[in-house]
């Protein structure tokens, strides 16, 4: 398949490119597009055959449901039994990085929801994404635009890397601002529950309903007694080729432990990357330090995390040593993604 690339350049012709992409969606094709969280791989959510192409292009397990993307807060065509708390979440956080799970209407084909009777819905904040949805005149089902299991792409070059030749169109915009996927809140239960931490923190959600909790199963290694409620959270994910280990603890001890591990690995002829923050980077004199951002501003760390994991692959690293973060605010989403990349291999110091 020949994949066409249209790059948004902040000029008049941009609209033509978005319309061109929308024509592929309308015709049942697949389009990668920017969102504020990560790039998505979209198809018409109401067209079962089109949605099947997403699963095929990504190599995605059939039991993993997709999120549908809308350009308006009016979702009555797709969801039924919309509780009051869902309306309040929508009012406060849409457009933005929040996916709400509701009971689905029959118009949503089973392939889109992976045979569940619920559906995740999100209104992205990114203008290009919203225009694409509007011009397509439908709702767009879109998982992250990566091959299943790889880190989600935060720029269009990474979409090309994973999906060139497998999809119809790549709409290239800016780098994703948030860098981790949307927060998923299940509103089919009362009180609602966070199934995946993301761009909207638990603290922010609790301003709407103080009873909201995070699914306990997602912050630890999945086991048979405690399974994550979001099907996608059970898979190994965000995994670069290198072996990832998280070192978690007080700053000084973390740095000391990492320095010792870097030295040991280099002695054993391994290529080592360190995922660090600007405050700590100068401490590491061996190995390749990749600065994610500032430890004082965790949104900067979230923004560059997936790109950093991919860069480690480009560098052919054997070992990735990642500094851990306190599970508070944005730290929850960052640790969730790191834990999955590391297969929950954490050394506490
Ligand atoms: O930020 C995002 O949400 C991005 C952008 C493209 O919008 N999309 C995204 O989609 O991350 P994906 O497919 O990579 O992740 C969707 C997650 C999966 O873990 C899936 O299992 C869960 O949402 N999910 C979807 N529908 C669900 C449902 N009805 N019940 C429970 N979990 C659901
Ligand atoms: Mg994904």
From TrEMBL:
Q: Which keywords accompany this UniProt record?
A: ATP-binding, Cytoplasm, Nucleotide-binding, Nucleotidyltransferase, Transferase, tRNA processing
GO CC list = cytoplasm
Quick one: a GO biological-process term for this protein?
regulation of translational fidelity
- Which residues are L-threonine-binding? 37, 69, 122, 142, 182
Q: Which Pfam families match?
A: Sua5_C (PF03481), Sua5_yciO_yrdC (PF01300)
Where it mainly occurs, coarsely classed, is cytoplasm
Q: Which family does it belong to?
A: Belongs to the SUA5 family.
Provide the protein name. Answer: Threonylcarbamoyl-AMP synthase
Organism of origin is Clostridium puniceum
The gene it comes from is ywlC
């Amino acid at each position: 398949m020949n994949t066409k690339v249209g790059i948004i350049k902040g000029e008049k012709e941009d609209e033509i490119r978005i319309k061109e992409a929308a024509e592929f969606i309308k015709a049942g094709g697949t389009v990668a597009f920017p969102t504020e969280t990560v790039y998505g791989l979209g198809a018409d959510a109401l067209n079962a055959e089109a949605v099947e192409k997403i699963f095929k292009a990504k190599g995605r397990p059939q039991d993993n449901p997709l999120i549908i993307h809308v350009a308006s807060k009016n979702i009555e065509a797709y969801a039924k039994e919309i509780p009051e708390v869902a309306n309040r979440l929508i009012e406060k956080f849409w457009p933005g990085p929040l996916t709400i799970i509701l009971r689905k209407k029959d118009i949503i084909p089973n392939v889109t929801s992976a045979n569940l009777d619920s559906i995740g819905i999100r209104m992205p904040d990114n203008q290009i994404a919203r225009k694409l949805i509007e011009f397509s005149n439908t709702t767009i089902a879109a998982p992250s635009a990566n091959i299943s299991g790889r880190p989600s792409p935060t720029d269009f070059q990474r979409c090309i890397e994973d999906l060139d030749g497998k999809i119809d169109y790549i709409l290239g915009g800016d780098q994703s601002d948030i860098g981790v996927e949307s927060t998923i809140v299940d509103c089919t239960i009362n009180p609602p529950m966070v199934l995946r931490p993301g761009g909207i923190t638990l603290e922010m959600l609790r301003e709407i309903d103080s009873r909201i909790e995070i699914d306990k199963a997602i912050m630890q290694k999945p086991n048979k007694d405690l399974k994550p409620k979001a099907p996608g959270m059970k898979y190994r994910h965000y995994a670069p080729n290198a072996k990832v280990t998280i070192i978690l603890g007080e700053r000084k001890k973390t740095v000391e432990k990492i320095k010792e591990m870097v030295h040991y690995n280099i002695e054993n002829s391994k290529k080592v990357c360190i995922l660090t923050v600007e405050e700590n980077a100068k401490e590491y004199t061996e190995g390749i330090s990749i600065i994610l951002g500032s430890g004082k501003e965790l949104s900067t760390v979230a923004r560059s995390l997936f790109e950093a994991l991919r860069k480690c692959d480009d560098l052919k690293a054997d070992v990735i040593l990642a500094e851990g973060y306190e599970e508070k605010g944005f730290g929850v989403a960052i640790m969730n993604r790191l834990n999955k990349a590391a297969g929950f291999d954490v050394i506490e110091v």
